[in-house]
């Protein structure tokens, strides 16, 4: 789901400056010797040109951060860091954006500027919507709302209502989204100032989006057209592009494809003319074009725009966009008769979709809102109690003799509370130790359950789907014997179909092997590794040699599975990145320990980058190592060819791991 327009508050009034004043700021940067003034001017210009020249904006904002840091000016550094974060956000570089906005939020809190801190929290909430991390986004939005409510900042409250509505929209809770959008709009109706007027079209755009989802298309068209009329006055090209896309969606729903295409082309011209630079929204535009051309039975154009959307999604590494682009590519390929490619794209789309699902999403969002409402009520109760306390103090002013007794009672109560706190801390430590043991047992149980499920899934795919393919092959072979008007063409179709089915069957066997090799379950790690090596060699990408010494007895099941998965993860990384021509897998076992090594002749790399990387490779290997108490060693150097990975496991640890795994299964 693409990210739509939102209300974002600016920290200063520089957005209203014209081109002449921008030139004036540039002259200040060149002429002044005062570091603080120069840094602030740089940050101002970076904000103004963030959409027209993002590269210069990044350079100016970075220089402003460095200068203000060198003179220890927290106020200017916070402002410059926030502008730099916004520029990175517009470029869809979310990690960099979050980094600098976190710095800004920290310094605003340090200098006591709560309003600007709340603004940063809103922007962080918006970025987390793009990632997406909806729970974190809603948490930050409610933090900002508390600050604005205390300050009675109507503009801030209205903008925060919009962002809370965005989260509910993205989590498909449209009634709640519409409620918060209307709250925001009602507050904005009370003001006519420029700072509020320039964002009202964004709220109208959001309301129009909700009515699209609620299938109230007449209302959607009304609010979207109203949003466009306000956006043209400013002008806000981002809002114009998004509203055109939304109007196209409405007319597409009504099967008025010509109107829909004309609106999408208007959005395309905005990006083509360089009026805005937002890769995320641009990818959504190309996806909408692909969907529309698909509906218009123009599959070549649909495929072209789906590929453009997929290319941008890969550049900015956005999983939600990848999922939608792959799903549309699969649909187009299916209609074009390319069933193998369609199956591959749809399968990849489902995999991404599964990874994005969060079973606790709605529950967590509800809990956060309940927490916010509860805290608000508690504040009201506390205020009432404080008022009652003041009245009681007035009544007790003449009872000075009671002061001594009250002090004694307080001291006595403090002693009791201290004793209770000590007892509670001791009890908490005991509970934490028990929880750690329980978590360890649960982890073992979960992993065992996952491996059993993979085993079952592999067996079902192999036995069930394989038999169906065999039957289909026999049916197709039988069809070639029938006479028809064009027997040569029918025979050619049948042979091609049989070839595709053979490919599907081979791919299915490969999937079964990846999920849970039957050789590993039935014959053990030695045979499984050899089969794994043979498969790699047969791929003709690299030669894989497997050597096993003195491994006569079967290892515990959890050890065999973990070692195989570690080996599989490492070899896949070697084939993907190392450009190796030869891989050697060696398994050695003696009375004291077992050693697994994987050696290749490919490119070396920086080991520290591997350990600290954001990918899942090292995390997966580390989880398996912790499970079997294995020791990991890596011998590699960047610029040198040849890398060796080693896993050592003591015999005594293997027995302990086996016993622990059996207990966790029972639990």
User: Which structural class best describes the helix and strand composition?
Assistant: alpha+beta
Q: Main beta sheet, described? A: 5 strands, mixed
> Overall pLDDT, averaged?
78
Large-scale geometry: globular
Low-confidence stretches: 1-17
Please report the first level of CATH classification, the CATH class of the domain at 523-666: Alpha Beta
Please compute the radius of gyration using only Cα atoms: 32 Å
- Name the CATH homologous superfamily of the domain at 523-666: Histidine kinase-like ATPase, C-terminal domain
Order of strands, main sheet, comes to 1-2-3-5-4
What distance separates the N and C termini?
Answer: 41 Å
Helix-residue proportion? over 70%
Write the layout of secondary structure elements.
Elements: H1 19-31, H2 35-48, H3 54-70, H4 74-90, H5 94-111, H6 114-130, H7 134-151, H8 154-170, H9 174-189, H10 194-197, H11 200-213, H12 217-233, H13 237-253, H14 257-272, H15 279-295, H16 299-316, H17 319-335, H18 339-356, H19 361-396, H20 402-479, H21 487-515, H22 518-523, H23 525-538, E1 543-549, H24 557-578, E2 582-589, E3 593-603, H25 607-612, H26 617-628, E4 631-635, E5 641-650, H27 651-666
Parallel strand pairs: 1-2
Antiparallel strand pairs: 2-3, 3-5, 4-5
Helix pairs in contact: 1-2, 2-3, 2-4, 3-4, 4-5, 5-6, 6-7, 6-8, 7-8, 7-19, 8-9, 9-11, 11-12, 11-13, 12-13, 13-14, 13-15, 14-15, 15-16, 15-17, 16-17, 17-18, 20-21, 20-27, 23-24, 24-26
